[in-house]
Write a structure and sequence with these properties.
- Chain A: This is NAD-dependent epimerase/dehydratase family protein.
- Chain B: It comes from Nocardioides marmoriginsengisoli.
- Chain B: One of its GO terms (molecular function) is acyltransferase activity.
- Chain B: Keywords: Acyltransferase, Transferase.
- The complex is a heterodimer.
- By secondary structure, chain A is an alpha/beta fold.
- Chain A has a single domain, classed as Rossmann fold (3-Layer(aba) Sandwich).
- Helix content of chain A is 41%, strand content 17%.
- In chain A, helix 3 links the parallel strand 4 and strand 5.
- Chain A is globular and about 75 Å long.
- Chain A starts with a strand and ends in a 12-residue tail after the last helix.
- Chain B is of the alpha/beta class.
- Chain B has a seven-stranded mixed sheet, with helices on both faces. A two-stranded antiparallel sheet of chain B has the order 7-8.
- Among the domains of chain B are: 55 residues, no CATH class; 207 residues, Glycerol-3-phosphate (1)-acyltransferase (3-Layer(aba) Sandwich).
- The chains are: A alpha/beta, B alpha/beta.
């Protein structure tokens, strides 16, 4: 008999795609997708339950369907449309209710939380690479950082109360993908990219298919614990913006807040306080445990994930093609006979 | 004091000898001839003043328009000419007849540019210029890699190091001793004294290790470094990371040469009178990091950095207000403004001492506070003694 998987947050792109992917797995019999809103795309063989995880109905669904695996994917930063308090309500209270429902269910064996590397926050006191046993250096921060820390602590509490349930937490880096719509992709899609003046943060990215594969791996493999999930290597924000060929707009940190709130109103990108801290100080996570304990290796490095994402966008003003053309013209005009490609590296 | 009388003293801004009278004396009138002469006719007889007043007024508008359009038109004529050869339109312009009205023909610009390239890159300028342009293109399109600490080896080697090399070689005339103590491969912990108000000694140690031992020094910086705009960006790219045990051990395990200045702000911010006296060496965290990773500690003594900005004063209240450890006052700063930021050209000696091995200690040694304190003291004493002997050998501060 195969597994019965309940996936929360299927209205969002990543949740819906994950639900479809796990439904195709031979080890899984049934997949039930839960969300407040109906999903925008095709759910395939996934049965959809329109329910709020803050509602006790979710407990009935888990009991009646004999759900043995819960994949909690609806912990998300507040999007431009919803307010902070609404996001906090959904993230923290939603998780509490879901865990309460899970605790009553005798059939439950696995619980997978899709967390985020945002849990570490961003500050000038951060080590270069966070490993799983470290905490945010600036207290538990504000906004989404605080939410996700609370969510993780509730999940740890659940793991203590139900030791028979295998609990796995995946702290995933920012996902990038061609069709993906998240605050991060929204930021990089801006025609002129605002940055914090005088700071160049380190960033890690994860290809969206790698993210889904990692959650599938964690769902099906019987490994408990907390794992950082990110593509290998880091990129500087300035480097990423140059690869997009878009102009950067360095603003003093207080001005980023003002510009950001205007953009937030226009639903263009997310510039919350924790996001501005991230744009100033960046973050890197250590992925040794992901490779050695979880046994998962992303197919793309940070640079490859970003490269694929950049290729899916229309090239910016200072695209590589134009820079190359200008260089060739200049070398040509000066009578250089050298092949430009030979000089790389 | 009720019957005190105010006695007018001084002129209250009026020309005169301080008599208090409204009318200036005749000699004083002579001193301020022009405005007095101008004002006087206007108030008395307007008819007589008009030819006098109109002449300067009329002259000014005549002069101004005559001057302003002239540079504007000449700029209009010359500026497009130099711009053209820089763009892709060079071959057609160079081949076709250059317009006679244009200031300098494009061919001349091209010839001038070629001569300049020969000047800068030497005779073999073509491939070197092409390589430089390729470098520029790689930077512009983000086609380079940084390591997980944000260290950008290319820009460090080709830009930062090139920029500070003349300072190290010509200004401070750094003499490097004991380079053989820096291992050619594998991790090592360079522990050095800290001085000089601004951590220039760190940069100089880094370039000395790069030029003489051909390895990159990876300094550990205080959290303040990563809080300051621009400084934080340059520091990460130059290979600095946060001074914490996690980062230090991670880098040492990765086989890097890590630089640490355990005196911290106590060292660079100490007054000139306490020069070459080592301050407390933190909590010895660097020793436990070295013991855990089993890398050698290289005690490094820097002589000369104390004299670059002699710190004679501090404004603690302002420093607290700004959230920085100290506000330096040197004999030239802030007295001479930006000029006071030029470091004094003291003669530097950097000596890398004999490595102190830590791989012989067993596993739990890093947790033994007594052992850690002993090793810390050993490192501190070695540096202090080397400093004294180097000071004895140095002929003079600027020699």
């Amino acid at each position: 008999m195969g597994r019965v998987v309940l996936v929360t947050g299927v209205a969002r792109d990543l949740g819906r795609r994950f639900a479809r992917q796990i439904a195709a797995s031979p080890a899984v019999d049934r997949v039930i997708g839960v969300d407040v809103q109906p999903p925008r795309g095709d759910l395939g063989g996934v049965s959809f339950v329109r329910a709020d995880i803050r509602n006790p109905i979710i407990a009935k669904v888990i009991m009646r369907e004999h759900v043995d695996t819960v994949v909690h994917m609806s912990v998300l930063p507040s999007a431009g449309s919803s307010s902070r308090t609404a996001a906090k309500e959904l993230n923290v209270i939603g998780t509490m209710q879901l865990l309460a429902a899970c605790q009553q269910s005798p059939d439950l064996e696995h619980f997978v939380l899709k967390s985020s590397t945002s849990v570490y926050g961003s500050s000038n006191r951060d080590p270069a690479m966070f490993s799983e046993d470290m905490n945010a250096k600036h207290g538990f921060g504000v906004g989404f950082v605080k939410d996700i820390n609370e969510v993780e602590s509730y999940v740890r509490g659940f793991a203590r109360r139900r030791p028979d349930v295998r609990v796995t937490t995946l702290r995933t880096a920012n996902a990038l993908g061609a069709g993906l719509s998240t605050p991060t992709t929204g930021y990089f899609k801006l025609p002129v990219i605002p940055t914090v003046l005088g700071f160049d943060p380190r960033m890690q990215f994860l290809n969206d298919t790698d993210l889904l594969d990692a959650i599938e791996h964690a769902t099906l493999a019987d490994i408990r614990g907390t794992f950082n999930i990110a593509g290998a290597g880091v990129m500087m924000l300035s480097q990423a913006i140059r690869r997009l060929g878009r102009p950067a707009l360095p603003l003093p940190s207080f001005a980023v807040g003002a510009v950001g709130s205007a953009m937030r109103q226009a639903r263009m990108a997310d510039f919350s306080r924790e996001q501005i801290a991230f744009l100033a100080y960046g973050r890197g996570v250590d992925t040794t445990r992901m490779r050695e304990v979880l046994g998962f290796k992303p197919s793309r490095t940070t640079e490859q994930a970003f490269g694929e994402f950049a290729a899916s966008l229309s090239p910016g003003l200072i695209s590589e093609r134009r820079v190359r053309a200008a260089e060739e013209a200049l070398v040509g005009a000066l009578g250089g006979r050298n092949q430009i490609g030979e000089l790389d590296g | 004091m009720g019957d005190a009388e105010i006695i007018p003293i001084g002129t209250r801004g009026k020309p005169g000898r301080g008599t208090g009278s409204a009318k200036p004396s005749s000699s004083a009138r002579g001193l301020v001839a022009k405005p007095a002469a101008k004002r006087a006719p206007r108030t008395k007889t307007p008819s007589a003043a008009t030819p006098d007043g109109a002449a300067p007024d009329g002259a000014a508008p005549d002069v101004e328009p005559a001057e302003t359009p002239a540079p504007a038109s000449s700029r209009d004529a010359t500026i497009p000419a130099p711009r053209q050869p820089l763009h892709q339109q060079v071959p057609p312009v160079a081949g076709a007849h250059p317009e006679p009205t244009v200031g300098i023909p494009a061919v001349d610009w091209l010839a001038g540019f070629t001569t300049a390239a020969v000047e800068v890159f030497g005779d073999n300028w073509e491939p070197r210029l092409a390589a430089f342009l390729a470098f520029l293109r790689r930077r512009l399109t983000g086609d380079y890699t940084v390591d997980e600490y944000g260290f950008d080896a290319e820009i460090t080697q080709r830009f930062f190091m090139t920029a500070i090399r003349p300072v190290a070689e010509k200004w401070f005339r750094i003499e490097v001793r004991g380079v053989e103590n820096i291992p050619p491969t594998g991790g090592a912990l360079v522990v050095s004294n800290h001085s000089g108000t601004i951590p220039i000694d760190g940069m100089m140690t880094a370039i000395s290790i790069h030029d003489h031992a051909h390895r990159f020094l990876r300094p550990l910086g205080a959290d303040l470094v990563f809080k300051l705009p621009v400084v934080s960006e340059l520091a990460r790219k130059g290979g600095v990371t946060l001074a914490c045990n996690d980062d230090a051990e991670r880098m040492l395990r990765g086989g890097e040469i890590v630089g640490v200045w355990p005196e911290g702000f106590k060292g660079i911010g100490k007054p000139y009178s306490e020069r070459y006296k080592l301050q407390r060496f933190g909590r010895g965290g660097f020793v436990s990091a070295a013991i855990r990773t089993g890398v050698p500690i290289i005690p490094t003594s820097v002589v000369g950095a104390e004299e670059i900005y002699p710190l004679v004063g501090n404004i603690p209240s302002l420093a607290r207000l700004l959230g920085v450890p100290y506000i330096p006052i040197t004999p030239f700063f802030p007295l001479l403004g930006p000029l006071g930021l030029i470091p004094l050209p003291s003669k530097w000696i950097i000596e890398f001492g004999e490595p102190i091995r830590t791989d012989e200690y067993d596993e739990g040694a890093a947790e033994d506070p007594m052992l850690v304190f002993n090793v810390t003291d050993q490192v501190r004493e070695t540096i202090q003694q080397t400093l004294y002997s180097l000071l004895m050998q140095r002929k003079s501060v600027f020699g």
